[in-house]
Amino acid sequence: MHIKTLAERAGVSVKAVRYYESRGLLSPERATNGYRTYDDEDVRIVREVRALLSLGLTAEQTHPFVECLRAGNDRADVCPASLSAYRARIADIDARMQELADLRGQLAGLLAEAENYTPEETR
């Protein structure tokens, strides 16, 4: 199938397909006329990559999942490298949550100080 058909079937833009290809996530065959050709596995890969990107993984972090699918697995997340990628993303989220909690605490403290502020009497 051509790139436009792949994009339509996977629910992404042609530009997204080209981006995934540039990141090494897709390796289309070339027809004798030079056009890229894709197959059903590519549709599956693009759908998986899109889902992973929506979870905040980077294109680079999706490589283990793509490799897992290409290895013939029914799911992209059953391989050890995919599980490691999940763990790394969870750790990133946990760290960000802690940063946000710390920031919230600082802001709440400043708000409390501001709400309770009474100016000193000037002499």
From TrEMBL:
| PROSITE patterns in the record | HTH_MERR_2
Which InterPro entries does the entry link to? DNA-bd_dom_put_sf, MerR-type_HTH_dom, MerR_fam
Q: Which keywords label this protein? A: DNA-binding, Transcription, Transcription regulation
Q: Name one GO molecular function term.
A: DNA-binding transcription factor activity
Q: Transcription regulation: present as a keyword of the record?
A: yes
Q: Which domain of life is it from?
A: Bacteria
Please list the residue ranges annotated as the HTH merR-type domain. Answer: 1-68
Question: Transcription regulation among the record's keywords?
Answer: yes
Q: Which Gene3D superfamilies match?
A: 1.10.1660.10
User: What is the designated name of this protein?
Assistant: MerR family transcriptional regulator
The organism named in the record is Nocardioides pocheonensis
Source organism lineage? Bacteria, Bacillati, Actinomycetota, Actinomycetes, Propionibacteriales
